[in-house]
């Protein structure tokens, strides 16, 4: 063993300790630093639909709940409605006591053009019921049952006889 190799051991150890202490210091500062928050801005844009405007499917959010014994039915119905231009709302299992054979629209106003357009997707077998669960006033709520097979005729527009506002999702700026 020469003199050079004997002195290198403590220097390597000292260098390792310096790197370890620096790493611990930087790591602790990163761990305890506050995160930068970015204002995401609004998640939707409010749009007024005039009484004479045509109501289109891309203005309507639909909540779909499953009252059948088939797993995933509400999700499949929601996806098929999205293919027709409707906006996806809540999806899940129904807690409503309403007996849904094919499909039931929960509403207090069957004449609402948004309700009429959504109901048209389910054909003549669609039923209506007063809401017995909490429903979002900005969306149309549908409960699908065991007898649901497929959506009916693809109808994407309806006449409008009232003024209402909708909140259309926006794409956040990056």
Spatially, the strands of the biggest sheet line up as 4-3-7-5-6
Helical/strand content category: alpha/beta
| Strand composition percent | 15-25%
Using the coordinates shown, work out and report the CATH topology of the largest domain. Alpha-Beta Plaits
The residue-averaged pLDDT reads 90
The CATH level-2 architecture of the largest domain is identified as: 2-Layer Sandwich
Series of secondary-structure elements, N-terminal to C-terminal = HEEEHEEHEEEE
How many separate domains?
2
Distance between the termini: 62 Å
Describe this structure as you would to a colleague.
The longest helix has 30 residues. The chain is elongated. It is built from 3 helices and 9 strands, in the order αβββαββαββββ. The chain has a 5-stranded mixed sheet, with helices on one face. Strands 1-9 form a two-stranded antiparallel sheet. The chain has a two-stranded antiparallel sheet with strand order 2-8. It is an alpha/beta fold. It has 2 domains: 35 residues; 126 residues, Alpha-Beta Plaits.
Describe the secondary-structure layout.
Blueprint: H1 3-32, E1 44-49, E2 55-56, E3 61-66, H2 73-83, E4 87-93, E5 103-106, H3 113-120, E6 126-129, E7 139-144, E8 157-158, E9 164-169
Parallel strand pairs: 3-4, 3-7, 5-6
Antiparallel strand pairs: 1-9, 2-8, 5-7
Descriptors:
174 residues, alpha/beta, Alpha-Beta Plaits, 2 domains, two-stranded antiparallel ribbon, 3 helices, 9 strands, elongated
